[in-house]
């Protein structure tokens, strides 16, 4: 009996050790995706020169002034692409080394086991990164109707929000709910039309649905070049430049800037000029 008891105790220890090893392996895999500067900002490489020389500069990197901090939320109907958009932001800002995928269950903000199994966001998650001198606290919120209160809880602390729309669906049921919540708290918003390369995507339909269903007056900052299978880039309305993506680029970082010329794109130039004039008129 004594030997059996010892075996039982050792077996429990081994099982516990096995579970801990699995957890540690997953934790190590997640940490490998993060870059060192995520803890101290994008100026991490300059720290050795600052230490002992300029304590104030060091402090501004680790803890920037409040005027340089922005709390931004991501909100949308479920499956519009909030978490995927968040992953792209984190990757392009240098927060992560590789792109996570909802289907693979390795995104930064969906870290709960239930979220990774189901491929949906259940609770809000915040991540911090630096961009062009600003510290951004990005909050990925749930899009499912059952977790509406999670969105409400986050809106109270936001400086602004990005409303993500499926370009093939436009405004959906939960979009209306979260938009009204943002209206209630007077949160400034940017509308991001996602999935422009999806079959059935329509820029004009999505924009019109925002006007009609949300009673909003969207100002266009970018216009698409093509839709669905022909989608290949966007036009910057302010600078009147074309941003054309390299189709062979794996992560979407590689793109080319070209001036928008009347001789090559007369229709697109006209639409861009009209959108730019409308934008300037509202800014005045």
TrEMBL record:
Q: What is this protein called?
A: GTP dependent ribosome recycling factor mitochondrial 2
* The organism's place on the tree of life at top rank: Eukaryota
Q: Which GO terms describe its biological process?
A: mitochondrial translation; ribosome disassembly
Q: Which GO terms describe its cellular component?
A: mitochondrial matrix
User: Which GO MF terms are attached to this record?
Assistant: GTP binding; GTPase activity
- What species is this protein from? Rousettus aegyptiacus
- Entry keyword annotation includes Mitochondrion: yes
Q: Does the record carry Acyltransferase as a key word?
A: no
Q: What keywords would UniProt list here? A: GTP-binding, Mitochondrion, Nucleotide-binding, Protein biosynthesis
Using the record's annotation, list all stretches that form the Tr-type G domain: 67-284
Q: Which NCBIfam families match?
A: small_GTP
Residues spanning the signal sequence: none
Q: Which Gene3D superfamilies match?
A: P-loop containing nucleotide triphosphate hydrolases (3.40.50.300)
